[in-house]
Write a structure and sequence with these properties.
Length: 245
């Protein structure tokens, strides 16, 4: 799980579900932005897509001879948290970066975020979409959701659902696993003793494809996840080791 001296500097994990029309541009952009900051690897996790996402990822890799690109295919749609975890479990870098597969996140934000973690300033950098290019309904529902989430967990996170993050791999490995955990990583890292920094990141309009989230499939699920995390707060095992001989 941790990187070897000859391994990648970091691992980028990108969950992909029915994003066939975005895949080529996404990979073009990742290559252009991150290759100068390598060595790195990108794990694109196909979360049971029903369209041609998998085929387009494979074709792009073959066409460009991209040995830094790894494609992980799940047997069925398991959800964003499971897709991210599948990539993290196979990652070889000491630091994990995540990015949504819909092109709304800008990978140009990642190098500066990565540098702050590598410099030891923090253990996680979480993105904040100050100027979101989403509908008013989505922006309002997200604001309400973040408020409820912070009230129930006792934490303060500005934009829990922002997909662009950089985290030391050991915190991903140590965090409890549950559906929806990708939205609680800042809280989980803090509970595990890590330092979290929030930074403003760019957010772009969706150019192709359809959003997978809405009020109908997010409100009750989000409330359930918040209650689960609140339950975890006082039950997480964090043995306070004093020393080791």
């Amino acid at each position: 799980m941790t990187g070897q001296p000859s391994g990648p500097r970091f691992s980028l994990v990108v969950p992909v579900f029915d994003e066939a029309d975005n895949v080529p541009a996404l990979l073009d952009e990742i290559a252009a932005v991150l290759r100068p900051h390598g060595p790195f690897e990108a794990l694109l996790v196909d979360d049971g897509s029903r369209d041609a996402s998998r085929e387009r990822m494979r074709a792009w890799k073959q066409q460009h001879g991209a040995d830094w690109l790894r494609i992980v295919c799940l047997q069925r749609n398991c959800g964003q948290s499971a897709a991210v975890l599948a990539g993290v479990e196979r990652a070889r870098g000491p630091i994990i970066a995540t990015l949504d597969g819909d092109l709304q996140n800008d990978p140009r934000d990642l190098p500066a975020m990565l540098q702050r973690v590598e410099a030891g300033e923090c253990d996680m950098v979480a993105g904040v979409r100050r100027r979101r290019h989403d509908t008013l309904v989505r922006r309002l529902s997200s604001k309400v959701g973040n408020g409820v989430r912070n009230w129930l967990t006792g934490d303060r996170v500005t934009d829990a659902a922002c997909g662009i993050k950089v985290i030391r791999c050991e915190y991903f490995v140590a965090a409890p696993r549950f559906a929806g955990m990708h939205r609680f990583m800042a809280t989980l890292v803090r509970w595990l003793g890590g330092r979290v920094v929030e930074v403003d990141v760019h957010h772009r309009p969706r150019a192709a494809g359809r959003t997978k989230y809405g009020i109908g499939n997010r409100a009750l699920r989000g409330l359930r996840d918040c209650l689960a995390v609140r339950w975890l707060r006082d039950r997480m095992l964090r043995p306070p080791v004093e020393e080791e001989f």
